[in-house]
Each structure stands twice: as structure tokens, then as C-alpha cells.
Specification:
It is built from 2 helices and 4 strands; from the N terminus they run βαββαβ. The protein is α+β, with helices and mostly antiparallel strands. It has one domain: Alpha-Beta Plaits. Helix 1 crosses helix 2. It is globular. It starts with a strand and ends with a strand.
């Protein structure tokens, strides 16, 4: 079953997205997807996945120097 996680991030540009793209693609390989909403003031990242956990997404962005915080329902 796919899960959807939503995060507040410090990603502000397409260049920032390009910097984290490889890591996010690895996390959702095998049936997931992700996207950023840079127009939202919280710079939202949505991750739809069957296998990764929120901590992995947070770590992937932190590795590239970005803050990332899961938003709870």
C-alpha cells in the first residue's frame, strides 16, 4: 500500500530540486513519486511511496544541506 508523506522544506529553487533529485529518486524507486510546491510558503515536498520512511527523506535532504520537517495530519 502506498503512503503519502508531506514535508516543509528549505528548498527554494529548481537548482535546489536538481541537487536532491537523485537521492529522492532512489528512495521512491519501484513505484513511488515525489514533487515540490515551491509556491507554497512552506515549500512543500510530497512523497508517495511504498517503501521509504519519513526519516529517510529528511536525511536525504539534510545530506544536501536542506531542512526538512514532516507535517502531521
Amino acid at each position: 500500500m502506498k503512503e503519502v508523506f508531506v514535508f516543509r522544506t528549505s528548498v527554494t529553487s529548481r537548482a535546489d530540486i536538481a541537487g536532491v533529485q537523485e537521492g529522492l529518486n532512489r528512495l521512491v524507486a519501484g513505484g513511488g513519486r515525489w514533487n515540490f510546491d515551491l509556491e507554497d510558503w512552506e515549500r512543500i515536498l510530497r512523497v508517495e511511496t511504498t517503501g521509504c520512511r519519513p526519516a529517510q527523506v529528511i536525511a536525504a535532504l539534510a545530506q544536501k544541506g536542506h531542512r526538512c520537517e514532516e507535517l502531521e495530519d
